[in-house]
Amino acid sequence: MIHLLRTLLLCAAATVFQAYAQITNEINFGIISTESSSNLKENWQPLIDEMQKRTGLKINAFFASDYAGIIEAMRFNKVQVAWYGNKAAMEAVDRSNGEVFAKMVAPDGSQGYYSLLVVHKDSPLRSLDDMLKNGKNLNFGNGDPNSTSGFLVPSYYVFALNKIDPKMHFKTARGASHETNLLAVVNKQVDVATNNTENLERFKTKFPDKAADVRVIWKSPLIPNDPLVWRKDLSPELKKKVRDFVLAYGTGADAAREKAIMLKITTAGFQASDDRQLLPIRQLELFKDKTKIENDTAMSAADKTAKLEEINRKLAQLNTQLAASK
Q1: Among positive and negative, which fits the CA dihedral 200, 145, 221, 229?
Q2: Which residue, among 35, 33, 43, 32, has the nearest Cα to 181 in the 3D structure?
Q3: What are the Cα distances from residue 146, in Å, to 89, 140, 292?
Q4: How far is residue 96's CA from residue 322's CA, in Å, rounded to a whole number?
Q5: Chain centroid, CA 126 distance in Å
Q6: In contact, 153 and 115? CB cutoff 8 Å
Q7: Is residue 23 very low, low, confident or very high in pLDDT (cuts 50, 70, 90)?
Q8: d(C-alpha 276, C-alpha 322), whole Å
Q9: Residue ranges of E strands in 9-150
C-alpha cells in the first residue's frame, strides 16, 4: 500500500512539473558546436536577444562541446528548441522527441550548401583522387560524427562509394569541429579535412588572412539547408510564439538591420519546414549502411541477404515518401 501511494505521488509530481515547465515562458535554445562556444555566442546572441524581446519569453542559449550534447539535452528536455545540421536533426527527431519546424535560407537564396574537403594552399593534393591514392601518408581531419557536412556526406560520397574506411586508410584520422579542422589545415596539423561552404564563408569573414591559405579539392552534391527543431511536447502557445518570430524575422520594416544580424549565422532568413526535409539524409544513411554490408567479407551470406533486404525495404519506403512530398 505504501509502495502504491509513493508511486502515485511520484506520478502526480511528474505531471505537475511537466505542466509547470509548459507555462514558465522559458526556452533553452541549443546551438550545435560547429566552432568555439565564444564564436557561436558572438554570432547567435544578437538573434537570441531579438527573439527574447519579440516573444516575451526568456531565451537561454545552450552550448555543448559536441553535437551529441545538444541532442541529449533535447532528449532530457534541457533544450526545447535547437539549431542542428540535418543528420543531428534526424537523431533528435528519432531519439529526442524532436520535430523540424523551420529551415534556414542561404544568403544567396539557395536551397542548400555543400560539404568540402580542404587542404593548405601549398599542399600537393589537387583532387579527391590524389587524396585517395596517398592516404597512408596523410593526416585526416574528419567532422563530428553527428555532422551532416563534416561526417555523413563525406562518409558516403568520399569513402563508402570508394570502399574505404577512413580510420584504416589514413596515417591518422580524428574528428573535430569545422573551425578546428580549418585551423588545423591552416597550421598544417592535418593534410586534409572536411568542412562546408557555409562555415568556410564565415571563416573568410572572420579570418581572411588564414582563409587565404585554404584550398578546396572536393565539393559534394547539394545538402538541404540547416533545420530548426523543437520538442514535440512544447506547448502550442510557446510553439506559436517561436514560429511567428522565426518566420517573420527579416521581413518587416526593420528588415535591413535584422538581415545584418542573421548574416552573422550565415542565413538570410527562415522558411517553414517539417520532418520531410530529412528524407534525403535518411536515404544517405541507408546507402552508407548498404555499402558497408555489401563490402563485409566476414558476414554470412544469409545474414547479408537479410540485412540488405531490410535496407532495400526501407529505401523503397523513403522513395515513396519523397515522391509524395514533391
Answers
A1: negative
A2: 35
A3: 9, 17, 18
A4: 23
A5: 28
A6: yes
A7: low
A8: 8
A9: 26-31, 58-63, 81-83, 98-105, 112-113, 115-120, 139-142
Residue with cell 520594416: 253
- Phi, psi of 77, deg, nearest 5: 60, 25
DSSP state of 321: H
- How do residues 233-260 score in pLDDT, each as one tens digit? 999 999 999 999 999 999 989 999 999 9
How do strand 115-120 and strand 192-196 relate by DSSP bridges?
antiparallel
- Return the SS3 of 61: strand
Helix axis angle for 67-75 and 86-95, nearest 10°, is 30
- Rounded to whole angstroms, the Cα distance separating 51 from 62 reads 14
Q: DSSP label at 276?
A: G
Dist. CA 190–CA 184, nearest whole Å: 6
Give the whole-angstrom CA distance, residue 196 versus residue 264: 16
44 beta partners: none
CA-nearest of 216, 132, 145, 215 to 174 is: 145
> How much is the pTM?
0.80
Helix extents (H) in 57-115: 67-75, 86-95
Q: Confidence band (pLDDT; 50, 70, 90) for 222?
A: confident
- pLDDT tens, position by position, 113-147: 999 999 999 999 999 999 999 999 999 999 999 99
The Cα–Cα gap between 127 and 139 comes to 16
Residue 191 vs residues 117, 142, 155, 278, 287: alpha-carbon distances, Å = 10, 11, 18, 32, 28
Among 46, 80, 35, 89, smallest CA distance to 62 is for 80
